[in-house]
Protein backbone atom coordinates (compact mmCIF):
# COMPACT_ATOMS: atom_id res chain seq x y z
CA UNK A 1 0.00 0.00 0.00
CA UNK A 2 1.15 3.53 -0.73
CA UNK A 3 2.29 5.69 2.18
CA UNK A 4 -0.21 8.55 2.66
CA UNK A 5 1.12 11.78 1.14
CA UNK A 6 1.96 15.01 2.92
CA UNK A 7 0.91 18.18 1.16
CA UNK A 8 0.96 21.83 2.03
CA UNK A 9 -0.85 25.12 1.60
CA UNK A 10 1.66 27.97 1.29
CA UNK A 11 0.03 31.38 1.10
CA UNK A 12 2.20 34.47 0.66
CA UNK A 13 0.98 37.34 2.83
CA UNK A 14 2.10 39.84 0.20
CA UNK A 15 -1.53 40.60 -0.49
CA UNK A 16 -5.02 39.25 0.02
CA UNK A 17 -5.99 35.77 -1.17
CA UNK A 18 -8.36 35.85 -4.12
CA UNK A 19 -10.51 33.38 -6.05
CA UNK A 20 -7.46 32.13 -7.93
CA UNK A 21 -5.60 31.27 -4.75
CA UNK A 22 -8.73 29.56 -3.43
CA UNK A 23 -8.92 27.29 -6.46
CA UNK A 24 -5.28 26.21 -6.15
CA UNK A 25 -5.60 25.65 -2.39
CA UNK A 26 -8.74 23.59 -2.93
CA UNK A 27 -7.05 21.33 -5.48
CA UNK A 28 -3.96 20.94 -3.27
CA UNK A 29 -6.04 20.12 -0.21
CA UNK A 30 -8.38 17.67 -1.96
CA UNK A 31 -5.55 15.78 -3.66
CA UNK A 32 -3.99 15.04 -0.28
CA UNK A 33 -7.18 14.52 1.73
CA UNK A 34 -8.57 12.06 -0.80
CA UNK A 35 -5.41 10.00 -0.41
CA UNK A 36 -5.77 10.12 3.39
CA UNK A 37 -2.67 12.32 3.79
CA UNK A 38 -1.55 15.17 6.02
CA UNK A 39 -1.79 18.87 5.16
CA UNK A 40 0.69 21.46 6.42
CA UNK A 41 0.19 25.21 6.41
CA UNK A 42 3.13 27.50 5.77
CA UNK A 43 3.13 31.27 5.78
CA UNK A 44 5.64 32.42 3.13
CA UNK A 45 6.50 35.77 4.62
CA UNK A 46 10.21 36.16 3.83
CA UNK A 47 9.60 38.61 1.00
CA UNK A 48 9.67 41.36 3.61
CA UNK A 49 9.21 44.56 1.63
CA UNK A 50 6.10 43.12 0.01
CA UNK A 51 4.51 41.50 3.08
CA UNK A 52 1.34 43.27 4.23
CA UNK A 53 0.44 43.51 7.91
CA UNK A 54 -2.44 41.19 8.86
CA UNK A 55 -2.35 39.38 5.51
CA UNK A 56 -1.15 36.15 7.14
CA UNK A 57 -4.00 36.15 9.65
CA UNK A 58 -6.37 37.01 6.86
CA UNK A 59 -5.12 34.09 4.74
CA UNK A 60 -5.72 31.74 7.67
CA UNK A 61 -9.26 33.07 8.04
CA UNK A 62 -9.84 32.68 4.31
CA UNK A 63 -8.73 29.04 4.39
CA UNK A 64 -10.91 28.32 7.42
CA UNK A 65 -13.85 30.00 5.73
CA UNK A 66 -13.36 27.74 2.73
CA UNK A 67 -13.42 24.74 5.08
CA UNK A 68 -9.82 23.71 4.41
CA UNK A 69 -7.89 22.49 7.43
CA UNK A 70 -4.35 21.42 8.36
CA UNK A 71 -2.81 19.06 10.83
CA UNK A 72 -0.05 20.96 12.57
CA UNK A 73 0.60 24.49 13.81
CA UNK A 74 1.40 26.79 10.88
CA UNK A 75 5.06 27.10 9.91
CA UNK A 76 6.15 30.73 9.57
CA UNK A 77 9.17 31.31 7.35
CA UNK A 78 10.47 34.38 9.17
CA UNK A 79 10.99 32.19 12.27
CA UNK A 80 13.21 29.78 10.38
CA UNK A 81 16.14 31.88 9.23
CA UNK A 82 18.65 29.61 11.01
CA UNK A 83 17.46 26.60 9.01
CA UNK A 84 17.88 28.45 5.73
CA UNK A 85 21.32 29.70 6.80
CA UNK A 86 22.28 26.14 7.52
CA UNK A 87 21.31 25.03 4.04
CA UNK A 88 23.21 27.95 2.51
CA UNK A 89 26.29 26.99 4.51
CA UNK A 90 26.13 23.48 3.06
CA UNK A 91 25.84 24.84 -0.48
CA UNK A 92 28.81 27.13 0.20
CA UNK A 93 30.96 24.33 1.56
CA UNK A 94 30.21 22.29 -1.52
CA UNK A 95 31.14 25.30 -3.72
CA UNK A 96 27.76 25.03 -5.43
CA UNK A 97 27.04 28.73 -4.92
CA UNK A 98 29.13 31.86 -5.34
CA UNK A 99 28.81 35.46 -4.15
CA UNK A 100 27.55 37.88 -6.81
CA UNK A 101 27.95 41.64 -6.46
CA UNK A 102 26.10 42.57 -9.65
CA UNK A 103 23.18 44.93 -9.43
CA UNK A 104 20.06 44.42 -11.49
CA UNK A 105 21.19 47.05 -13.98
CA UNK A 106 24.65 45.40 -14.29
CA UNK A 107 22.88 42.21 -15.29
CA UNK A 108 20.60 43.97 -17.80
CA UNK A 109 23.52 45.77 -19.39
CA UNK A 110 25.78 42.75 -19.67
CA UNK A 111 23.13 40.40 -21.01
CA UNK A 112 23.14 40.18 -24.76
CA UNK A 113 20.31 37.73 -25.36
CA UNK A 114 16.76 39.06 -25.60
CA UNK A 115 14.64 37.99 -22.69
CA UNK A 116 11.02 37.61 -21.72
CA UNK A 117 9.90 40.66 -19.80
CA UNK A 118 8.74 38.76 -16.73
CA UNK A 119 11.82 36.57 -16.44
CA UNK A 120 14.61 39.10 -16.84
CA UNK A 121 17.77 38.27 -18.73
CA UNK A 122 19.87 35.23 -17.99
CA UNK A 123 22.60 36.19 -15.55
CA UNK A 124 25.79 36.62 -17.63
CA UNK A 125 27.95 34.85 -15.03
CA UNK A 126 30.10 37.89 -14.34
CA UNK A 127 31.01 36.58 -10.87
CA UNK A 128 31.10 32.85 -11.61
CA UNK A 129 34.84 32.48 -11.01
CA UNK A 130 34.51 33.40 -7.32
CA UNK A 131 34.92 30.79 -4.62
CA UNK A 132 32.58 30.93 -1.68
CA UNK A 133 35.38 32.12 0.64
CA UNK A 134 35.70 35.24 -1.52
CA UNK A 135 32.55 36.53 0.20
CA UNK A 136 34.83 37.69 3.02
CA UNK A 137 36.85 39.96 0.69
CA UNK A 138 34.26 42.01 -1.14
CA UNK A 139 35.10 45.36 0.49
CA UNK A 140 31.78 45.52 2.27
CA UNK A 141 29.87 45.35 -1.04
CA UNK A 142 26.34 44.03 -0.96
CA UNK A 143 26.15 40.59 -2.54
CA UNK A 144 23.77 37.74 -3.24
CA UNK A 145 24.50 34.02 -3.53
CA UNK A 146 23.92 32.36 -6.88
CA UNK A 147 23.63 28.67 -7.65
CA UNK A 148 25.97 27.49 -10.40
CA UNK A 149 23.75 25.78 -12.98
CA UNK A 150 24.95 22.43 -14.28
CA UNK A 151 24.96 21.85 -18.04
CA UNK A 152 21.96 19.53 -17.82
CA UNK A 153 18.81 20.83 -16.17
CA UNK A 154 16.56 18.18 -14.62
CA UNK A 155 13.30 17.35 -16.38
CA UNK A 156 10.38 16.45 -14.21
CA UNK A 157 7.25 14.42 -14.54
CA UNK A 158 4.50 16.77 -13.44
CA UNK A 159 1.47 14.98 -12.11
CA UNK A 160 -0.84 17.28 -14.05
CA UNK A 161 1.28 18.51 -16.99
CA UNK A 162 3.32 15.37 -17.66
CA UNK A 163 6.98 15.61 -18.74
CA UNK A 164 8.13 19.17 -18.27
CA UNK A 165 11.39 20.90 -19.13
CA UNK A 166 12.48 24.47 -18.51
CA UNK A 167 15.57 25.99 -20.07
CA UNK A 168 17.08 27.58 -16.99
CA UNK A 169 20.13 28.65 -18.96
CA UNK A 170 17.89 31.09 -20.78
CA UNK A 171 15.57 31.85 -17.90
CA UNK A 172 17.61 33.67 -15.23
CA UNK A 173 20.66 31.40 -15.55
CA UNK A 174 22.56 30.94 -12.27
CA UNK A 175 19.70 31.69 -9.92
CA UNK A 176 19.70 33.53 -6.63
CA UNK A 177 19.36 31.40 -3.49
CA UNK A 178 20.12 34.20 -1.06
CA UNK A 179 19.23 37.81 -1.82
CA UNK A 180 21.36 39.74 0.70
CA UNK A 181 22.31 39.47 4.38
CA UNK A 182 19.52 37.64 6.29
CA UNK A 183 17.36 37.45 3.15
CA UNK A 184 16.96 33.91 1.80
CA UNK A 185 15.34 33.64 -1.61
CA UNK A 186 12.06 31.81 -2.11
CA UNK A 187 13.77 28.95 -4.00
CA UNK A 188 15.92 27.94 -1.06
CA UNK A 189 13.38 28.55 1.71
CA UNK A 190 10.69 26.51 0.00
CA UNK A 191 13.01 23.53 -0.49
CA UNK A 192 14.18 23.60 3.13
CA UNK A 193 10.62 23.85 4.41
CA UNK A 194 9.15 21.19 2.15
CA UNK A 195 12.03 18.79 2.80
CA UNK A 196 12.07 19.24 6.59
CA UNK A 197 8.27 19.07 6.70
CA UNK A 198 8.32 15.73 4.89
CA UNK A 199 6.21 17.11 2.05
CA UNK A 200 5.68 14.53 -0.68
CA UNK A 201 3.09 16.36 -2.85
CA UNK A 202 3.44 19.93 -4.03
CA UNK A 203 0.39 21.30 -5.82
CA UNK A 204 0.64 24.93 -6.91
CA UNK A 205 -0.11 27.39 -9.68
CA UNK A 206 1.53 26.85 -13.06
CA UNK A 207 3.21 30.25 -12.82
CA UNK A 208 5.70 28.37 -10.63
CA UNK A 209 6.69 25.77 -13.24
CA UNK A 210 10.03 27.56 -13.88
CA UNK A 211 10.85 27.30 -10.17
CA UNK A 212 10.62 23.53 -10.10
CA UNK A 213 13.87 22.59 -11.87
CA UNK A 214 15.69 25.09 -9.66
CA UNK A 215 14.19 23.46 -6.61
CA UNK A 216 15.07 20.00 -7.92
CA UNK A 217 18.69 21.11 -8.25
CA UNK A 218 18.61 22.26 -4.64
CA UNK A 219 17.08 18.97 -3.44
CA UNK A 220 19.86 17.16 -5.19
CA UNK A 221 22.55 19.50 -3.87
CA UNK A 222 21.29 19.10 -0.29
CA UNK A 223 20.84 15.34 -0.56
CA UNK A 224 17.08 15.35 -0.05
CA UNK A 225 14.35 13.43 -1.85
CA UNK A 226 12.11 15.77 -3.85
CA UNK A 227 8.32 15.68 -3.63
CA UNK A 228 6.05 15.02 -6.58
CA UNK A 229 4.97 18.25 -8.28
CA UNK A 230 1.67 19.20 -9.88
CA UNK A 231 1.12 22.62 -11.44
CA UNK A 232 -2.42 23.70 -12.13
CA UNK A 233 -3.77 26.47 -14.37
CA UNK A 234 -4.41 29.86 -12.85
CA UNK A 235 -7.60 31.87 -12.79
CA UNK A 236 -7.58 34.76 -15.26
CA UNK A 237 -9.83 37.73 -15.94
CA UNK A 238 -11.91 38.17 -19.12
CA UNK A 239 -8.83 39.72 -20.79
CA UNK A 240 -6.89 36.50 -20.28
CA UNK A 241 -4.50 38.06 -17.80
CA UNK A 242 -3.81 36.72 -14.35
CA UNK A 243 -6.46 37.72 -11.81
CA UNK A 244 -5.62 41.16 -10.41
CA UNK A 245 -7.17 44.37 -9.15
CA UNK A 246 -8.09 45.56 -12.64
CA UNK A 247 -10.58 42.69 -12.82
CA UNK A 248 -12.55 44.00 -9.86
CA UNK A 249 -12.43 42.84 -6.32
CA UNK A 250 -12.16 39.06 -6.15
CA UNK A 251 -10.52 38.99 -2.75
CA UNK A 252 -12.05 36.28 -0.60
CA UNK A 253 -12.44 38.64 2.36
CA UNK A 254 -14.41 41.09 0.22
CA UNK A 255 -16.65 38.46 -1.35
CA UNK A 256 -17.35 37.08 2.11
CA UNK A 257 -18.27 40.55 3.35
CA UNK A 258 -20.57 40.93 0.36
CA UNK A 259 -22.41 37.85 1.58
CA UNK A 260 -20.99 35.14 -0.65
CA UNK A 261 -21.13 31.77 1.09
CA UNK A 262 -18.06 29.53 0.96
CA UNK A 263 -20.26 26.68 -0.32
CA UNK A 264 -21.32 28.80 -3.28
CA UNK A 265 -17.76 29.69 -4.23
CA UNK A 266 -16.75 26.05 -3.77
CA UNK A 267 -19.63 25.10 -6.06
CA UNK A 268 -18.24 27.37 -8.76
CA UNK A 269 -14.71 26.04 -8.29
CA UNK A 270 -15.77 22.39 -8.19
CA UNK A 271 -17.86 22.84 -11.33
CA UNK A 272 -14.90 24.56 -13.05
CA UNK A 273 -12.76 21.52 -12.20
CA UNK A 274 -15.36 19.10 -13.55
CA UNK A 275 -16.12 17.42 -10.23
CA UNK A 276 -19.80 18.35 -10.25
CA UNK A 277 -21.89 18.60 -13.41
CA UNK A 278 -23.95 21.59 -12.37
CA UNK A 279 -23.01 24.49 -10.13
CA UNK A 280 -24.52 23.94 -6.69
CA UNK A 281 -23.52 24.79 -3.14
CA UNK A 282 -21.09 22.21 -1.82
CA UNK A 283 -18.81 21.92 1.24
CA UNK A 284 -15.08 21.26 0.88
CA UNK A 285 -15.31 17.94 2.71
CA UNK A 286 -18.10 16.75 0.39
CA UNK A 287 -15.67 17.19 -2.50
CA UNK A 288 -13.07 14.81 -1.09
CA UNK A 289 -14.56 11.72 -2.77
CA UNK A 290 -15.41 13.70 -5.95
CA UNK A 291 -11.92 15.09 -6.60
CA UNK A 292 -10.21 13.90 -9.81
CA UNK A 293 -7.13 15.14 -11.63
CA UNK A 294 -8.44 14.00 -15.02
CA UNK A 295 -11.39 16.39 -15.20
CA UNK A 296 -9.45 19.57 -14.38
CA UNK A 297 -9.22 21.58 -17.63
CA UNK A 298 -5.74 22.29 -18.93
CA UNK A 299 -6.56 25.92 -19.65
CA UNK A 300 -6.99 28.76 -17.16
CA UNK A 301 -10.38 29.42 -15.62
CA UNK A 302 -11.74 32.69 -17.00
CA UNK A 303 -13.52 34.41 -14.14
CA UNK A 304 -16.17 36.77 -15.51
CA UNK A 305 -18.48 38.93 -13.40
CA UNK A 306 -21.34 36.75 -14.69
CA UNK A 307 -19.68 33.63 -13.36
CA UNK A 308 -19.26 35.17 -9.92
CA UNK A 309 -22.89 36.28 -10.09
CA UNK A 310 -24.01 32.76 -10.79
CA UNK A 311 -22.23 31.65 -7.61
CA UNK A 312 -24.01 34.40 -5.68
CA UNK A 313 -27.35 33.33 -7.15
CA UNK A 314 -26.89 29.78 -5.85
CA UNK A 315 -27.82 31.13 -2.45
CA UNK A 316 -31.31 32.41 -3.19
N1 LIG B 1 3.67 31.22 -1.74
C1 LIG B 1 3.43 30.92 -3.11
C2 LIG B 1 2.11 31.55 -3.56
O1 LIG B 1 1.33 31.98 -2.74
C3 LIG B 1 3.37 29.43 -3.37
C4 LIG B 1 4.72 28.83 -3.37
C5 LIG B 1 4.73 27.33 -3.57
O2 LIG B 1 3.66 26.72 -3.56
O3 LIG B 1 5.81 26.80 -3.72
O4 LIG B 1 1.90 31.64 -4.76
ZN1 LIG C 1 27.58 38.96 -10.36
Q: How would you portray this structure in words?
A:
This protein has 316 residues and is of the alpha/beta class. The chain folds into 2 domains: 152 residues, 3-Layer(aba) Sandwich (Rossmann fold), CATH 3.40.50.620; 108 residues, Glutamyl-tRNA Synthetase, domain 3 (Alpha-Beta Complex), CATH 3.90.800.10. It has 10 helices and 13 strands. The strands form 5 sheets. It has a 4-stranded antiparallel sheet with strand order 4-5-8-9. Strands 1-2-3 form a 3-stranded parallel sheet, with helices on one face. The protein is elongated and about 70 Å long. The site of glutamic acid has 8 residues, from strand 10.
Descriptive key words:
316 residues, alpha/beta, Rossmann fold, Glutamyl-tRNA Synthetase, domain 3, three-stranded parallel β-sheet, 13 strands, binds glutamic acid, binds zinc ion
Task: Please sum up the structure shown.
With 316 residues, this protein is an alpha/beta fold. The protein has helices spanning 19-34, 55-66, 81-93, 104-110, 186-196, 211-222, 252-257, 262-272, 284-287, 305-313; strands at residues 6-9, 38-43, 75-76, 97-100, 144-147, 156-158, 162-164, 176-180, 183-184, 201-205, 228-232, 235-236, 301-302.
Amino acid sequence: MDIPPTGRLAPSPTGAQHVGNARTFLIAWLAVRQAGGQVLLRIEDIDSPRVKPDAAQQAIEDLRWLGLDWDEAPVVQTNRLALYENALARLREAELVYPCTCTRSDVERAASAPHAEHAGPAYPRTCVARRSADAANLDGKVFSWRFRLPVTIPEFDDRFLGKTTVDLHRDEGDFVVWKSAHAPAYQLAVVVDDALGGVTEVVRGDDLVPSTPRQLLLYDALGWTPPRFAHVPLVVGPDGRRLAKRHGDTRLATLRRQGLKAESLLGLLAWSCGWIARMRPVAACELIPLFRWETIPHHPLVLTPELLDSALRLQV
